[in-house]
Amino acid sequence: xxxxxxxxxxxxxxxxxxxxxxxxxxxxxxxxxxxxxxxxxxxxxxxxxxxxxxxxxxxxxxxxxxxxxxxxxxxxxxxxxxxxxxxxxxxxxxxxxxxxxxxxxxxxxxxxxxxxxxxxxxxxxxxxxxxxxxxxxxxxxxxxxxxxxxxxxxxxxxxxxxxxxxxxxxxxxxxxxxxxxxxxxxxxxxxxxxxxxxxxxxxxxxxxxxxxxxxxxxxxxxxxxxxxxxxxxxxxxxxxxxxxxxxxxxxxxxxxxxxxxxxxxxxxxxxxxxxxxxxxxxxxxxxxxxxxxxxxxxxxxxxxxxxxxxxxxxxxxxxxxxxxxxxxxxxxxxxxxxxxxxxxxxxxxxxxxxxxxxxxxxxxxxxxxxxxxxxxxxxxxxxxxxxxxxxxxxxxxxxxxxxxxxxx
Length: 408
Fold this sequence. Notes:
- There is one protein chain.
- By secondary structure, the chain is mainly α.
- It contains 16 helices and no strands.
- Helix 12 packs antiparallel against helix 14 (313-341).
């Protein structure tokens, strides 16, 4: 473990522990307070929409005006305040819903910007490996999932938001030890409209700073970036139909809520081990990005395939472990891929937007399609959809040799 590995590992651990409390238990929390399923659905859907709108803004700001470190510290402070307000105003549905959505809109993009920060900090520590520190997030997610379930069952939901606030407070001393990173767009200086500079980037240079509209336009012109974005979106679409409706599949296999929790916990443990092993492999030998993405897509086929062929309770655990192996390969490759294909002047924007768009759009599309299929044809149709999407994505990764290559 080098100088940045431990603080980044712990930062991921604490953030994903707080993320788990909100994302995994928000429906339980709201229904326990008497809110309807419709209300919960509105909150979760609008939370994704808020993430979709606010993340590009955060990515652009951290490339242009403020470092990721300062932006995330500010965001953590806002989340803490919002959690306290949610605790006070929890019995006022409309106001509570607005606060919940705003909290998610600020907290969710934290993950993508943290990923960009990690990859951008590798210049300060050559031994920093993304998959190793991302394993901290998996550990935080798994441990807090189990711990929060026990706590809420014993003590109730009064401290739901206060636990999140406490965890985000713990982020400040950890982020203090992490480096500031400066992106290219922040060092540019505006130049007259009739003199678009062509000199090198830097203070006093004539190169014009890109605005937010131009930032989006710069991404659309990068072939490799768009191809990677398509593959990553298809990856999320290839597993979310089963993942989003896994609780229903668990019940059909003879399990219950306790079974569901154990399946998730076992999967988190498998994902942690996979990320650590991949980190060790990457420090001793070279495994290409395409190889890791292809492995992720190939392994992704087996969870729905096993559940389709053998809808039994023990198979749930084996299937989840295999999917977690897939996650490990995917997480070790997608962040690095967006780093390689990013617009240099808009590094944080490029990386965080790619991660956000692929996960949010892929998940929303999968949830919508999966819900319709599940209602009309049952859960086995979800498994067929996942198998087909994963096989298509595997073919794209294997056949398109330009998938991961930096645009000139």
